[in-house]
Amino acid sequence: MKLSIFIARRYLFSKKKQNAINIISIISMIGVMIGTTALIVVLSVFNGIDTLLTTVTDSFTPDLTVTPAQGKFVATDSLLLEQLKKMPGIASFDAVVEENSLVKFGDKLVPVIVKGVEEDYARHAGIAPTIISGKFSLEEEDKPTVVLGYGIAAALRTRLGMQSPVTFYYPDKTASSASMSALNSQRIYPIGIFSAQQDIDGKYVITGIETARKLFGVPGEISKIEIKLKNPDNLASFKTSLATEVGTKYKVLDKYDLNRSFYAMMKSEKLAVFLILLFILLIASFNIVGSVSMLIIDKKEDIGVYQALGMTKEKLVSIFKLEGNLITGVGAFAGLIIGTGLCLLQEYYGFITLGNGSYIINAYPVKVVASDILIIMLTVIAIGYIASHFPVRYLVNKIVKS
Predict the structure, then answer these.
(1) C-beta of residue 343 within 8 angstroms of C-beta of residue 318
(2) What is the value of pTM for the model shown?
(3) CB neighbours of residue 304 within 10 Å
(4) Which of 51, 67, 159, 312 shows its CA 20 to 30 Å from the CA of 144?
(5) Around Cβ 143, how many Cβ atoms within 10 Å?
(6) Closest CA to 375 of 278, 280, 286
(7) Distance between the two ends of the chain, CA-based, in angstroms?
(8) Which has the minimum average pLDDT: 134-148, 196-210, 285-299, 360-374?
């Protein structure tokens, strides 16, 4: 064992005459431990929330979307659909008719986005877990039905069932006046309510594709094709190859193109919280400065003995730098164990629940990500190193005469 490490370890773990130094060293370790634990827990919670929101949002945001290069609607291209069926990387795809509309119930009138889909859409998109009331169905008793977003259902104050239809309105392209007769209208029965993500819940309603075509006056047309991949990790490369296959008549967008602001917001929130906690940890690291500084002052006699025995100034500096690094290392390791342990317990056993309410999950979401923990540990150790390096060099240079 190197002499510097041996002496630094003795100073840290052996009993000292000055109890104040012991207490400050312990406080420093606890500060680093709490800071490391907080960083791991908070970032893991953010990862859990991000994963939950992304999973729920992905029910409505496919991996890739093929849309017309010009205009809102295009005639259904059977050749394109056959081409997509033959592509091995595609897990499923759905033709969709999507457009803005107005929906009325009683005296309530709300703008919405109507999404017309086929029966297989619910299975492909995995929408079942988001249904909080009623059921997912596109037709009941030979009548068209609609599944409403929670925000829209709350705004309309509608009732589910086949007795209280809501009325959708859309401009009639063939009409020549601005009267109510210039609007296509269709009575559709609300059969279910979904809750995925607030921005989606307040915009979207889902109905059958033929119902949507009739409302918008676009028989045999679609507005896009939504694609789910077998391996989403190949999104970038598959997007490029698909764009080449479909040609210039269509454009291919991925989920990041469609929800750029959503993904940017999640990253920025996580970064902001990380920087705030990092600043708190930086303040806590001043305890390390105080602890090591007091130890150097307390060990003036020892320093004189080491110098008389031929120890160089650099060797003396390394002893007390190691002291600070040990304080940081012990605190960081303890924080790593506690923080990771708490997160794993919550992730697998869900001890902290969300309480009573209509939630799609029962326990607070947490996800431990190895790369985040690595970044946290490197950052904490770097802060500890900087906190002990410069004060140690300054004080040793002041005590030791060249």
Answers:
(1) no
(2) 0.67
(3) 13
(4) 67
(5) 13
(6) 278
(7) 28
(8) 285-299
As given in the structure block, the two tokens for residue 233 are 């990790």
Instruction: Provide the token pair at 341.
Output: 């342990």
Rounded to the nearest 10 degrees, the angle between the axes of helix 260-284 and helix 286-298 is 20
CA pair distance 11, 20, nearest whole angstrom = 14
Query: Hey, what are 75's tokens?
Result: 């005639």
What is the rounded distance in angstroms from the CA atom of residue 372 to the CA atom of residue 273? 13
Averaged pLDDT score across all residues of the chain: 83
Residue 128's pLDDT is 82
CA 376/CA 365 separation, integer angstroms: 20
| CB-facing half-sphere around the CA of 34: CA atoms within 13 A | 12
Q: Which of 12-26, 244-258, 308-322 has the lowest mean pLDDT?
A: 12-26
Q: Which of 233, 232, 234, 184 has the alpha carbon at shortest distance from 212?
A: 184
16 pLDDT higher than 60? no
Taking CB atoms within 8 Å and a gap of at least 24, the contacts of 311-315 are: 313/396, 313/397, 313/400, 313/402, 315/3, 315/4
Relative to beta strand 183-194, strand 224-229 is: unpaired
> In this predicted structure, what is the pLDDT of residue 3?
66
Token couple for 128: 């079942």
